[in-house]
Amino acid sequence: MKVIRVMAEPTQTPASPPPAPPARGGFRVGLRLRFTVYLAGFLLLIMSIASYLVIKQQRSALDKEIRERGLALARALAANSVEPLSLGGEAPLQLMLLVKTVIQMSDENDAADMRGRLTESLGAMVWHELIGFGRGAGGARVRNEGVLFAKIVDPAGKKIAMADAQKPPEQWVAEMDQPYQPPAKTTLLSPGEDERVWESPDDGGIYVIAVPIHQRTGATGAEALEAPSPAPGAGGPASTGGSALPPVSAAPGGFMGSVYLGMSQSIVRRALAVAFAKLVYVAASVLVLAVILALFISGTLVGPIHQLRDGALAVGAGQLDTHVGIRRRDELGELAFAFNGMTKGLAERELIRGAFGAYVSSDVLTDILANPEAMKTIGGVKRTVTMVFTDVRGFTAMAGVLEAEQVVAVINDYLDLQAKQVRVHKGHVDKYIGDAVRAVFGIPSEAPDDVERAVRCAWGIKQDVAKLVADRKSRGEPHPLIGIGVDTGEVVAGNIGAANAKLEYTVIGDPVGMSEACMDAARDPDASGGQVVLTESTYGKVRDLVEVREMPPLKLQGRDTETKIYELVGLKTPASSGG
After folding, report:
1. DSSP labels for 3-17?
2. Which residues pair with 12 in a beta bridge?
3. How far is CA 221 from the centre of its chain?
4. Which of 167, 315, 341, 570 is the most buried (most CB within 10 A)?
5. What backbone phi and psi angles, to 5 degrees, belong to 362?
6. The three-state (H, E, C) secondary structure of 166-221, written as one string
7. Taking residues 201-218, what's their average pLDDT?
8. CA dihedral 549, 552, 558, 559 (to 10 degrees)
């Protein structure tokens, strides 16, 4: 019997570049952008909360400072007004000079422009501060900033003297001796009432501070009436546009009138605008630094991730020799080390698959790949299996008269159909021996229907060979028959051979020789396609599934007993789900 080995040289395909990541629907947001946005957003939130708390605390402190400052000015004005009110005469001129020194004055005398600055909103002030880069939106230098008006009112509620930063001086004189109209949400100070501070929405928000004017202790109304009258032309009534003021008589309790001071809240708004603008500059600087830092940090993370992504795509494209060159002492370095170990393992498994895939069945190959360490040792397990042994009748003689190409074509046709039947019935081709095939059912794992599938496989091979014989006979080509032997019994399955030389995953045991002996007995030249012979041990397990014809018993060399054998002539039932 000639041994013919037909082996194909493995083809190597050039490594293709890794495919691009698959496009996904929607806008892609990279890790660098995410990290930068998250960090910037977090810092912005923290700075916003801190700014709110700082602005709130500063506003409270400024409100308190403005109130105390207004009260101090109003008290001083009330104290300085007592003597002119007690003397009368040129009191209007003296009082006008007093109130004028209290109100806000600047190097610019445009009252309308000043009013615009005083009533400006906080948002506008912040904007001016921002576009002025912290240089302020102020303009001219201001004295007594924020004091909008100062008015002295007698006990009857008439204005004795007044000065208003938002009105021209001519209007001040015109409003003399007119009843005082308190701003919204304020009232006149009643005799006996202590100093008051109101908040009014007028003029963009003002504090109205009222301080009573009380006669000094020991002074009387009679003493006030004896005071000398001012000399004509000394700046009395003619200077103020009104008549001379008679001495003011104190009401019960010494009440001589009230001082009303208007303090604009624009001072608070302007201070807050300056503080807010500075916070914005600080926040912007911090955000810029944070973005730069975030881009740097994320770059150190995203770069290795991109390398791992490209490596994974390359492995997915079949480039199992891909190596990721990331050397870091952190989690990314550990991930790269694990990735390289994975690709090495895949390459080794692929090598095993390529080397053994053509020689062992898929089940055995899967078992080897699941436990590659088992390939390094000699050993095995006892299994009950069913052996199917086939041989092409007369092929050796036929090969001697055919050309080499014809020999290869004939044997490949016969071996191919047999291997397909073994795969269909989930068996394992143990080996090819020239034109013979040895198949096993029951390794690497046993199943309840191993015997049934083996018998059905043998019957399928017989039917396929019959069709092949008819086809080749019709074309005038060589058409040998086949002999098939089937036996069931216990074998040893495992790696057989020399540990440091050559190992072979195969089976040894009595069923191997018995199935071969049955194959030798299957020589009926009139059988369609060939003859299938079963041993008694196999027939006993599939008795209800097959139709057989008993043949003369076999007596093997070295055995005293004979073995009953049967020719398989048909199947009674269709294949089960397992077959």
Report:
1. -----PPPP-PPPPP
2. none
3. 86
4. 315
5. -65, -35
6. CCCHHHHHHCCCCECCCCCCCCCCCCCCCCEEEEECHHHCEEEEEEEEECCCCCCH
7. 84
8. 70
Give me the percent of the chain exceeding a pLDDT of 90: 27
pLDDT grade for 555, boundaries at 50, 70 and 90? confident
From residue 134, give the alpha-carbon distance in Å to each of 59, 78, 142, 559.
19, 38, 18, 113
Residues 6+ apart with CB under 8 A from 133: none
The residue with greater pLDDT, 84 or 359, is: 84
Give residue for tokens 């995953």: 505
pLDDT above 60 for 87: yes
Rounded to a whole number of angstroms, the CA Rg of the chain reads 57
Closest by CA to 301, choosing from 21, 37, 35, 18, is: 35
**414, 463, 455: which is closest to 436 by C-alpha?**
414
CA dist., res. 66 & res. 483, Å (int): 117
Q: Are 374 and 495 in contact (CB under 8 A)?
A: yes
Q: Which amino acid belongs to residue 425?
A: H
Q: d(Cα 249, Cα 222) in Å, to the nearest integer? A: 9
DSSP run (H or E) holding 519? helix 510-521
Tell me which DSSP letter residue 376 carries: G
Q: What is the C-alpha separation between 271 and 62, in angstroms, rounded?
A: 8
Report CA torsion sign: 458, 571, 563, 541: positive
The answer to whether the CB of 256 falls within 8 A of the CB of 177 is no
Which carries the bigger pLDDT value, residue 79 or residue 55?
79
